[in-house]
Specification:
The complex is a heterodimer of chains A (499) and B (94). Chain A is an all-alpha fold. Helices cover 60% and strands 2% of the residues of chain A. The longest helix of chain A has 31 residues. Chain B has one domain: Ubiquitin-like (UB roll), CATH 3.10.20.270. The longest helix of chain B has 9 residues. The radius of gyration of chain B is 12 Å and the shape is globular.
Chain lengths: 499, 94
């Protein structure tokens, strides 16, 4: 007679043994597992709610894979991609180039949970997480490979992380830090709990909804399928937080506060422009800020409350950043568009501008006036004036431009001298993150550091583009060829705020 | 005569830039090297343009002072933040 799963599940999942031939510290070094200051038996309280057996896992994943492939095969054959709005398509280029290899990095993170996590329950769940992330990588590669014939930018799903493209370097730096260099405990709090359980909702739920509305059923379906896995393996964060809080509450608070801010900055870069500028205005479901407030902010507040933690000290500044940060990243990426491997939509036709003013009451004063000068230059065929001649100054924590966290009215130096070197930050918050562990971040080189260090030859914009691996077939330009500027007449110096 | 990297912010713009200045540059020349990345690109030039001021730690530097003399007098590290704004009397932005 076969046993029911509940009869054997815990015996199987909790299988462990007492080490006698090797020092437990040598087998599970605290600097890898993150267990310093936490007694070994505390991990017996670590539990997860999913109760997945390997047999169940394989059966369910097989069904998911069949579903995604059936939809993908049908839509690729039907040539749906060629009919999509080019501005929306840019969002899928951006996603594939900056996300595919992060999924692959997550395979390594999960495999480290399998090996070094301090409880067999966690190690067991890490196996499924590792298989999940392998699947996600393969899904992204398959999707991109199918569309490579339509656009060489899909090559960047695999290529991007082997280039020095500045945005990719910033993304890679973040995930190198929180997935590959962090110990298991910190990786679970920063990646599983903060990024996967919180922020991926905005990439895999909000963007999936926008993609569906834009008619990109294939991509939307892929994103939704990935999200079902995230919802499961992200659960590794909660029991880890519970154990850590009972033994080192301050460490838990700091780790979450750092991860939440760094994740905010990342998603302001990757998802904010896609939602508020690239998705055709009539197909937008919610603004980036609205989605953040409903899905991320409320969610994070609830977690903090449930676990008796405080809101981060920077909460008011974070909310202010929600009004501004992704608008700054959008203006910056559009202006430095030759440094991108996708074609950004300016997204400031009069109809789009009205939407922005409705959703962001301060948009006109903070951002519209800067776009007005760009519009003047486009209208008068002064395109060189709409392009950069140098690099923006970059943050030594996020590696994103100084000024891209808040509005232009908040722009001020946030600097510190550490070991005789001047470090700069995009906000007081990023500076605080750096100060929590300066030795960890001090050696991370952003693109400006590399430029000054002589890595970019010749040391000019052309040399920079070559160093970033940007070739003419993928180099970014305005996706509509500046057609949106026709909205603005000769004496229309300032587009009237329509909100 | 030696190049030196600074962080140059034109007041009113949203982002500062990496700017290479020279120790022989006067502050007027430094101002132009910073302003070229903002004025006429994202910041409109005023009709009654009267030049620029360069500021270090909120202090206006003498227009004829060379960058080298500022280096000698004040503690300036590579990537030091300098502000540039339209000269007083002209409506800028902050």
């Amino acid at each position: 007679m076969l046993l029911n799963r509940d009869d054997w599940y815990e015996t199987s999942r909790d299988l462990d043994w007492t080490l006698s031939y090797v020092d437990p510290e040598a087998a599970f070094p605290a600097r890898w597992s993150g267990t310093e200051g936490i007694p070994a038996d505390a991990w017996q309280a670590w539990d997860e709610p999913f109760r997945v057996s390997y047999r169940d896992y394989v059966r369910i994943q097989r069904e998911k894979e069949s579903g995604v492939k059936a939809v993908s095969n049908a839509l690729v054959r039907a040539g749906i991609y060629e009919k999509l709005d080019p501005a929306h398509v840019a969002a899928s280029h951006l996603h594939m180039g900056t996300t595919c290899m992060v999924e692959h990095m997550a395979v390594t993170m999960q495999s480290r949970f399998c090996r070094f996590a301090p409880t067999p329950r966690w190690r067991n769940l890490g196996v499924f997480g590792m298989l999940d992330e392998t699947r996600h990588t393969q899904l992204d590669l398959r999707f991109s490979h199918d569309l490579l014939r339509a656009d060489p930018r899909f090559d960047w799903a695999q290529k991007a992380f082997h280039t020095n493209e500045w945005g990719v370097l910033a993304v890679k730096n973040f995930f190198d830090d929180i997935m590959l260099s962090a110990d298991c405990v910190e990786a679970a709090l920063a990646t599983s709990l903060t990024v996967e359980h919180g922020f991926t909702n905005i990439q895999f739920v909000a963007l999936a909804a926008d993609a569906m509305a834009a008619g990109d059923i294939n991509w939307s379906n892929l994103l939704s399928s990935i999200q079902t896995d995230e919802a499961r393996h992200a659960q590794q964060g909660f029991p880890t937080l519970q154990v850590l809080i009972e033994h080192d509450r301050e460490r838990a608070q700091t780790a979450l506060d750092v991860a939440f801010w760094r994740s905010t900055r990342l998603f302001q870069t990757l998802t904010g422009p896609a939602m508020d500028y690239y998705t055709p205005v009539e197909q937008r479901k919610m603004s980036f800020k609205e989605f953040m407030l409903e899905w991320i902010v409320n969610h994070h507040e609830r977690i903090l409350e449930d676990y008796g933690l405080k809101k981060p000290w920077y909460w008011d500044q974070f909310l202010h950043s929600l009004e501004n940060g992704h608008h700054a990243m959008h203006l910056g990426t559009w202006f430095w568009r030759p440094t991108l491997f996708w074609k950004p939509n300016a997204g400031i036709s009069k109809a789009e501008r009205a939407w922005l003013n409705e959703k962001y009451p301060t948009w006109e004063e903070n951002w519209g006036v800067l776009w007005d000068e760009i519009i003047e230059n486009v209208k008068h065929d002064r395109l060189p004036a709409t392009l950069p001649e140098t690099l923006p100054s970059l943050c030594n924590l996020t590696q994103l431009p100084l000024g891209s966290a808040m509005s232009r009215h908040d722009l001020a130096p946030h600097q510190l001298v550490y070991s005789g070197r001047l470090y700069q930050f995009d906000s007081e918050i990023s500076k605080w993150c750096f100060e929590q562990d300066p030795e960890r971040y001090a050696g991370h080189q952003n693109v400006v550091d590399r430029f000054i260090g002589g890595q970019i030859v010749p040391p000019d914009l052309g040399g920079g583009l070559q160093w970033m691996g940007l070739t003419p077939d993928v180099m970014g330009d305005d996706v509509y060829g500046y057609a949106w500027a026709k909205d603005y007449t000769a004496d229309d110096r300032a587009a009237a705020p329509v909100a | 005569m030696a190049p030196f990297p600074i962080t140059g912010r034109f007041v009113g713009d949203f982002v500062p830039h990496l700017v290479a200045v020279d120790t022989d540059d006067t502050m007027d020349e430094v101002a132009v090297k910073v302003a070229v990345h903002s004025v006429g690109r994202r910041i409109a030039s005023p009709a009654d343009f009267a030049g620029y001021d360069v500021l270090l730690n909120a202090e206006v530097l003498a227009p004829s002072a060379t960058f080298g003399s500022v280096l000698a007098e004040k503690q300036v590290l590579p990537l030091q933040w300098f502000d540039v704004r339209f000269r007083a009397g002209v409506p800028g932005d902050a």
